[in-house]
Each structure stands twice: as C-alpha cells, then as structure tokens.
C-alpha cells in the first residue's frame, strides 16, 4: 500500500478503526469523536520521511495514554487516548502488512519503561 498507512494509529475490534493518520496529533475522550489537536507538517514533508525500497526505522513509545510514532528519527504521529471505555493498559502488538503481502523486519526490541 505504499506509504498510505505508515504512522497511523489503527484499532481493531472496538469499532474505532483509524484514530490518527500520519502527520496528526489526535486526542480521544469518552463519548466524543476523536479530535485533531495539531498537524506535524504539510503532507509532502510528512510523506518524505518514509524511505521506499529501503529500511525504515520505527519507534513506538507508549507512556500512559499517549502513544508516539517516530519514523526515521522524526515524529510522524501522536495519539492521546483518553477514552476510558476503549483504552487498554496492556495487550498485543501487531505488525500489519497492507496490500503487498510482504514484510521485512529486523532488530525488533521491546522495552518496558519505568512507571
């Protein structure tokens, strides 16, 4: 799927679906629609962070209800998930492949941060 879904926050199984796209800072609250708080740059500059046909380095930092995607050293999206009816304190991490059916990974690390 090229670079369409890179950096998005997607949730399966709750009916919320895509909560934030790349380039967005979004906050959810109980009983309200997700709210766009800010954008992280224009579409072209955000799209340029992704390196097609090369290795991309992705960091996902989750502290409390805030999650940040950092792609190739640049923040690409942030989700502040304050919807108490949907947020989970723990769960599974999924790596999803869209369209191509191929995914190449290396050097995956998980680090639990101090509370």
Structural overview:
The chain is mainly β and 115 residues long. 4% of the residues lie in helices and 34% in strands. The protein has 1 helix and 7 strands, in the order ββββαβββ. The chain has one helix at residues 43-47, and strands at 9-11, 17-20, 24-29, 35-39, 58-63, 66-71, 74-82. The strands form 2 sheets. Strands 4-3-7-6-5 form a 5-stranded mixed sheet, with no helix packed on it. A two-stranded antiparallel ribbon has the order 1-2. The mean pLDDT is 88.
Give short descriptive properties of this protein.
mainly beta, five-stranded mixed beta sheet
Please report the total strand number as a whole number.
7
Number of helices: 1
Quick one: overall form?
A: globular
Radius of gyration: 14 Å
Low-pLDDT segments, ≥5 res = none
Percentage of residues in strands: 25-35%
Distance between the termini: 36 Å
**Would you tell me the structural class of the helices and strands?**
mainly beta
């Amino acid at each position: 799927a090229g670079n369409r879904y890179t950096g998005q926050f997607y949730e399966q199984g709750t009916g919320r679906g895509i909560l934030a796209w790349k380039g967005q800072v979004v906050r959810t609250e109980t009983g309200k629609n997700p709210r766009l708080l800010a954008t992280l740059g224009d579409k072209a500059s955000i799209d340029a962070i992704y390196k097609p046909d090369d290795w991309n380095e992705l960091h996902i930092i989750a502290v409390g209800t805030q999650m940040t995607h950092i792609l190739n050293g640049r923040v690409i999206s942030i989700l502040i998930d304050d919807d108490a009816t949907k947020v989970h304190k723990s769960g599974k991490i999924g790596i999803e492949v869209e369209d191509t059916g191929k995914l190449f990974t290396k050097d995956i690390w998980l680090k639990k941060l101090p509370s």
